[in-house]
Fold this protein.
Amino acid sequence: MEIQGTMSVLGFGNMGQAIVRGLIETGTLPPERIVVFDVDPGKADEAKGLGLGLAATPQDLASPCNVLLLAVKPQNMAEALDPLASVLDGDALVVSIMAGVSIASLQARLGESRRVARVMPNLPALVNASAAAIAMSANCSEADKEAAQAIFEAVGMAEFVQEDAMDTITALSGSGPAYFFYMAECMTRAAASLGLSESQAGRLAAQTLLGAGLLLRDSGEPAQTLRERVTSKGGTTAAALGRFQEKGFEEVIAA
């Protein structure tokens, strides 16, 4: 789906850049309809390299635009948003990836009737493999939902959720990549301690996680079924999983 109109992007760090690159690469939005502002002059050079428009000030960014993507750090919310409130197009959809910032907080600063999509993407957006959760304000239209979905499907997959699920989403897919990275670290160190080179162990661990994830996503089967298929009765995998259970693996994950 191609997004209609223009999109302004406030903040052009890793996530902002990943989303914009995905939009361009998938043809969801051409670069000439994207305008960027970032306080870091170096980010302007990167935006120029992609053929994007540059705003001299946040106020210039906000008017006119059809979609405003907020990709600044949550601690910078007040200084970033306050200059926009009086100039932002009244019909613009605000899409925020600021972690922990509620729809109500955004509406308090940008207008109580402002249509808002609050989104929790994750770091794999950098390789177009994000798992994003989207919560829409009650006054959003179907067209707003389609626009938000198109933005985040340009860098992975997206699920609509109620806003009160966002804390759970943060623990699941927002922080989740770090859990898998840590598991890969542990697997690599353990294999290296048994004589495998660290670089070789690292590559095998990474590919194992990638392959397992793709199989889980694409097979259509639940994780339990796939686990059981890999686990021969009395075999080494069963022994390893037994150790996981003895050490309280499920309780650790839940905690």
